[in-house]
Design brief:
- 21% of the residues lie in helices and 38% in strands.
- The chain is an alpha/beta fold.
- Helix 1 runs antiparallel to helix 2.
């Protein structure tokens, strides 16, 4: 249902260095690069993700309670996403694993990017 999502960044080059390897683990690649916008998508996918400098010129800040979630192909992709995020300057908000009480089984990992934005990558298998 969501067509695209946008997150603010304070340092575009730092964010590119984070997101290029992290999104590669999910089969996504950078599609747009400019001074103010950087976009990512999976080949053939109509959903897009963009990084941008905040329009008000202030420092980018994560939303309180906001989180983006991305569906992975399998558990190995969840593990790879988490490892790439930590290796690229992100922080762990929950290591890969089965989250109890979910049916079907929910295998997920949670990270924050260098600007503090929270991500979940998951698979239901």
């Amino acid at each position: 249902m969501i067509s695209y999502a946008t997150l603010g960044t304070t340092d575009m080059q730092r964010s590119i260095a984070f997101y290029d390897p992290v999104f590669a683990t999910l089969g996504a690649q950078r599609t747009t690069t400019s001074d103010t916008w950087t976009g990512y998508a999976r080949k053939g996918d109509r959903s897009l993700f963009f990084l941008t400098s905040p329009f008000n010129g202030e420092t980018a800040a994560p939303g309180n309670g906001a989180m983006l979630a991305v569906l992975a192909a399998d558990r190995a992709a969840v593990d790879a996403f988490h490892a790439a995020a930590l290796a690229s300057g992100g922080s762990c908000e929950g290591p890969p694993g089965v989250r109890q009480g979910m049916d079907p089984v929910f295998y997920a990992a949670y990270v924050r990017d260098p600007d503090g934005n929270k991500w979940c990558v998951y698979v239901r298998k």
